Amino acid sequence: MQPTLLILAAGMASRYGSMKQTEGFGPSGETIMDYSIYDAIKAGFGKVVFIIRKDFAENFKNKFGSKLAGKIEVDYVYQEMDSFVEKNQIPTERTKPWGTGHAILCAKDAVKEPFAVINADDYYGPDAFVKAAGFLSNQCNPNLYAIVGYQLDKTLSNHGTVSRGVCQVDDNGNLIAINERTKIFQQETKVVYEEDGGLKEVAGSSSVSMNFWCFHPSVFDLSLKLFQQFVPQNAENIKAEFFIPIIADKFITDQSNSIKVIPTTAQWFGVTYKEDAPGVKNNIDELISNKVYPESLWV
Fold it and tell me: What are the DSSP calls for the chain, one per residue?
């Protein structure tokens, strides 16, 4: 059974200031998602599922439906604020859905096979998809999930600080914990982050999460159980988000479960800030000139 690619594309990015998921960066208007889907198809994925909001549906289907027809199976799943939530549990002032873990849960009825999860606006590189497909096809099971670990110094922005989940990894290459570090930036030859009003150094070679996860469909039952606990516990916090690491942390508290950290040396890039956009275009042009991608992906 071929694995599925689940793309998280329901969020509007407030820092970036536009719907960056559908912005064209390639020579023929390709989005970052196009390159991820192209890499996934080459790696052996058989289906792509977009997690979107209903009001984005027409835009997405117009942009991706026809060009992917015959190349990979496509499905769309909607993440709405009331998905898997009772109406009376939603705080009156809440204006957006419940985060990345909630987004995965919304795909519960659409995904029945091992699957990878990625962000819509991150470029991950072919190596990550090849390694993820291999894991999902040959190793993934109800007791073993995985995360693709990127080298921290290959995930920074030249236009501002970034937040990254730094992976704590045991001697067997399994995830122990993800430590969130905010306001990370390059300071001369060092990588530092802000904490308690000061700067602390973090190794540039550290493995970090870029939200590229590999799951068995058993994750849906765990996600539902945890989310049903999360909502009433956070009734007073209108900005509370049910993130994927909440699910991962709970999963590995059971000693029979493990999350493998799959290392990649790929160069990540994305559009955290508007100023990142020209760099993304330049990176894609360079990949095309190096024959990693054709001039037009879908012709």
Answer: ---EEEEE----BTTTTB-GGG---STT---HHHHHHHHHHHHT--EEEEEE-GGGHHHHIIIIIHHHTTTSEEEEEE--TTTTS-GGGS-TT--S---HHHHHHTTTTT--S-EEEEETTEE--HHHHHHHHHHHHHT-BTTEEEEEEEEGGGS--TTS-EEEEEEEE-TTSBEEEEEEEEEEEEETTEEEEEETTEEEE--TT-EEEEEEEEE-TTHHHHHHHHHHHHHHHTTT-TT----HHHHHHHHHTSTT-EEEEEEE-PPPEE-SSGGGHHHHHHHHHHHHHTTSS-SSTT-
Contact 167, 213 (CB under 8 A): no
The Cβ of residue 258 has, within 10 Å, a number of other Cβ atoms equal to: 18
Identify the pLDDT of residue 18. 46
Residues 6 or more apart whose CB falls under 8 angstroms from that of 138 comprise none
Q: Which among 125, 123, 117, 150 is positioned nearest to 43, based on CA atoms?
A: 125
Domain boundaries, given as residue ranges, for the chain:
4-147+209-289
Say what the pLDDT of residue 15 is. Answer: 36
In the prediction, which pLDDT does 265 show?
86
The CB density around residue 226, as the number of other CB atoms within 10 Å, is 17
**How far is Cα 287 from Cα 125, in angstroms, rounded to an integer?**
10
Q: How much is the pTM?
A: 0.91
CATH number of 4-147+209-289, picked from 3.40.50.920, 2.40.128.110, 3.90.550.10, 2.40.10.270: 3.90.550.10
**Which residues does the chain have with pLDDT short of 50?**
12-18, 20
Cβ count near 254 (within 10 Å): 10
